[in-house]
Amino acid sequence: MQTIKRLNTGKNWSILVVFVYLGLILLIPAVSVFYEAFKEGIPTFLQAIQQREFIQAVWLTVLLSLFSVPLNTVFGLCAAWVIARNNFRGKAFLMSIIDLPFSISPVVAGLMMVLLYGRNGWLNWLVEYLDVRIVFALPGMVLATIFVTMPFVAREVIPVLEEIGSEQEDAARSLGANDLQIFWRVTLPSIRWGLLYGVLLTNARAMGEYGAIAVVSGNIIGKTASLPIFVELAYKNYQSQSAFAASVVLVLLAVVTLICKEILERYTRI
């Protein structure tokens, strides 16, 4: 009995430590942001999120997601299928390259874009030939976002494809189905929850990315500032109300993503 009581006491203390840690690191800072955003009233908050610079930052953040999520979804599906369905030399190396954005600092990723497409970059001749501006403009921000969000879909779909195996696809092929029919009617229904989970993570990272965007965007508020950049610039310019209002919007977007993630996990367990 004393042993069981000692184990229960240890478990309760562990749970308490986890809640205290989460409270100090996550909950109390999040609550403080909401308090600062709404302490002068809801009309002041609404006025802050109706500023032209704020709306432009939201639109720019949405654009970054609209470009990066579909492209990385298609790439992630192709990469996952190649890796899960084939054995070839260099497979482990390919998976390591896909994981590279997880280990490289986003600031370094942004710097790589500048070194490639900047005025003295390796590919500057191509940029001048095409007469487009990449660094300190939307194309550079899109490229940086694509880089940092690249692995999520592939990393979520690969384990699912390996788990379900290729027996059903082989059976469909033996019955005369072509590759496209097999993908839509056999493969996609089996991986749909893993795929959606990867898309959600990609979208969350795209909306919240700061480091890489800060290097390639030029940080011009009202022009090249996404929501995370807007928060920092507004706070540094003593526009605290605007900074906290934008932070609340980002937190709410993260909460929506978490709710969707929980729903998908429940379906996945089924």
Distance between the termini: 38 Å
Q: What's the mean pLDDT score? A: 88
Number of DSSP helical runs:
14
Structural class based on helices, strands and sheet pairing: mainly alpha
Domain ABC transmembrane type-1: 58-261
Main location: membrane
Subcellular location: Membrane
Keywords: Membrane, Sulfate transport, Transmembrane, Transmembrane helix, Transport
Explain what you see:
This protein has 270 residues and is mostly helical. The protein has helices at residues 2-38, 42-48, 52-85, 91-98, 100-103, 106-117, 124-130, 138-149, 151-164, 167-174, 179-208, 211-217, 227-236, 240-269. It comes from Cyanobacterium stanieri LEGE 03274. Part of the ABC transporter complex CysAWTP (TC 3.A.1.6.1) involved in sulfate/thiosulfate import. Probably responsible for the translocation of the substrate across the membrane. The complex is composed of two ATP-binding proteins (CysA), two transmembrane proteins (CysT and CysW) and a solute-binding protein (CysP). This is Sulfate ABC transporter permease subunit CysW.
